[in-house]
Each structure stands twice: as structure tokens, then as C-alpha cells.
Specification:
- There is one protein chain.
- The chain is α+β, with helices and mostly antiparallel strands.
- Helices cover about 40% and strands about 15% of the residues.
- The strands form three sheets. The chain has a two-stranded antiparallel ribbon with strand order 1-2. The protein has a two-stranded antiparallel ribbon with strand order 3-6. The chain has a two-stranded antiparallel ribbon with strand order 4-5.
- β4 and β5 form a beta hairpin.
- α3 packs across α5 and α5 crosses α9.
- The longest helix is centred in the middle third of the chain and has 17 residues.
- The chain is elongated, with a radius of gyration of 22 Å.
């Protein structure tokens, strides 16, 4: 295929750039102000995620309150949806693609008694949160955030995390789990969870 060369006069203050596969003229000043840091450096809080997605954090929380969203796990889920969308930068899971990998944070809950046996350095390294809870057993096990279920013989495994909270990479899932541990724990337990540092 033969290539053609086009000469285009570019107005002052503009520059050519590929935007979503289309060559456009963009404002040089806006391009300078664009934050090109990795997404994990730009999303440290729920408010950061809202800003990236163009959502008014105060207004959306007021909407949730007006809609009767008051349970801890419901609010945590809504916040995690926004945070996950911001971290994924437009990527959404394709559930028609059997070869696509999707990632979620792996959470391990510790009791207060177990944590008292660990050093502060050990807790900091794992970004641990405090939750007091338990589970049940019936012919097998069904306990905690994810479970291996069995009736007379092991048969299935399930994880109670929403598909909307899938991350496009393992690194993003790990980051989300560490940066937003309290929200993940609030969502999965339905209880107010605080950092061990604040307990």
C-alpha cells in the first residue's frame, strides 16, 4: 500500500496527537497539564477515583444516602465500583471471552488475638485490618470471604466477589487490596473494619 504525505498547517498552541486511533489537534497547554503518572499513583483515595472519572464525590454519596444506601457493605461496594473503574482506565471484563483473565484482591482476615502475636512491622508489611468474625461448617466448609463447598464429597469452590470489581491485571488487584483494605473488608464482611493502627 502506497503512503501519502500530507502537509497540514497547525495553529499556534496546538499539536497533533493520536487520540483513540484518530489523529487530532490537541491543546499544548492541556497536554502539559495531563497527569501521566501511573494510575496507582493517581488513585490513592475514593475521592481521587471520582475525580478521574469526572464524578462529584460528595454528590454521589448524597445520592446513595437519599436512595437509602446505609449498610456498610452496600456503601463499600459502590465505592469499590468507582475505584475499580478508575484503576482499570476504561477496561471492562468481557465475560464472553473464556480466555480472559480477571483479578481480585485476596483477603485474609485475622482475629484480634492472632494479631496481638504479630509485630507491627509484620502487620505493616501486609497492610492488615482488624475484624472479628467466624464461619460455619456442614459436611465440609463454608467460611469466610471465599469458600470451598462440599456435600459428602468436595465438589465446588466459590468466591463472593462481584464481577464488577474485576481488575485487568494482577498488579492492580494487589494494589487495590492493599490501598483500600478497609473498604474491601467492609464489603466482604458487612461490618465496620478499622486498621489495626486505629483500633
Amino acid at each position: 500500500m502506497a503512503k501519502q504525505v500530507l502537509e497540514v498547517e497547525i495553529p499556534a498552541g496546538k499539536k497533533p496527537a493520536w487520540v483513540d486511533g484518530v489523529l487530532k489537534l490537541v491543546d499544548c497547554e492541556q497536554e502539559k497539564q495531563k497527569d501521566n503518572r501511573p494510575i496507582t499513583e493517581r488513585v490513592k483515595t475514593f475521592e481521587d477515583a471520582c475525580q478521574i472519572l469526572g464524578i462529584d464525590a460528595e454528590a454521589i454519596q448524597e445520592q446513595w444516602e437519599n436512595a437509602g444506601l446505609t449498610m456498610i457493605d452496600e456503601i463499600a461496594y459502590q465505592k469499590l465500583r468507582i475505584i475499580t473503574a478508575a484503576l482499570n482506565e476504561g477496561w471492562e471484563p468481557d465475560f464472553t471471552n473464556p480466555d480472559e483473565y480477571r483479578y481480585y484482591p485476596y483477603l485474609c482476615l485475622w482475629t484480634k488475638e492472632e494479631l496481638e502475636q504479630k509485630t507491627d512491622e509484620w502487620k505493616d508489611e501486609r497492610n492488615l485490618q482488624l475484624w472479628i468474625g467466624g464461619g460455619s461448617s456442614n459436611y465440609g466448609a463454608n467460611c469466610g470471604l471465599a469458600s470451598a463447598c462440599s456435600d459428602f464429597a468436595w465438589s465446588s469452590a466459590s468466591a463472593d466477589l462481584s464481577a464488577r470489581l474485576a481488575h485487568k491485571t494482577e498488579e492492580l488487584a494487589i494494589y487495590s487490596g492493599k490501598q483500600f483494605t478497609e473498604l474491601w473488608a467492609n464489603y466482604t464482611t458487612g461490618k465496620e473494619v478499622k486498621s489495626w493502627r486505629n483500633s
